[in-house]
Amino acid sequence: SASEALFSGKLAELSVAQLKQMASDVPSLFLTPDSLSTGEISLIDLLTEGSWVCKSKAEARRLLAQKGVRINGKLPAEGDNPSIMLADFLGGAVIVIQIGKRKNALVILSK
Q1: pLDDT tens for residues 77-107?
Q2: What is the pTM of this model?
Q3: DSSP class of residue 8?
Q4: What are phi and psi of 83, to 5 degrees?
Q5: Under a CB-based contact definition with an 8 Å cutoff, are residues 60 and 43 in contact?
Q6: Of 17, 35, 90, 104, which alpha carbon lies 20 to 30 A from 111's?
Q7: What gap in Å lies between CA 75 and CA 72, rounded to an integer?
Q8: Can you give 42-103 as a three-state secondary structure string?
Q9: Which residue in 50, 49, 39 sits closest to 83, CA to CA?
């Protein structure tokens, strides 16, 4: 079930439709295609947008340095500030962000 996936850390295995239904249960950020007009967005900007996951860029950098962030179940690319591309969105619509072992968040690309 979706709630089991939420607590097992296996959110990335759910369908896009299931993930979108969970948006009311986990912190969710809705992006417009315009915010990806260059084809990418920096992960630190994404994590700190409106303080929804990280309160500061320093906190986001620290989490990345400690390998405490996973994107769709995988560690992001190496580097100080990896980019999130349109191709990272599952089904072109959703990204699952895991912070540590217990915190999950969704980035949903609105059409």
Answers
A1: 888 889 999 999 999 999 999 998 888 899 9
A2: 0.85
A3: H
A4: -100, 150
A5: yes
A6: 104
A7: 8
A8: EHHHHHHHHHCCCCCHHHHHHHHHCCCEEECCECCCCCCCCEEEHHHCECCCEEEEEECCCE
A9: 39
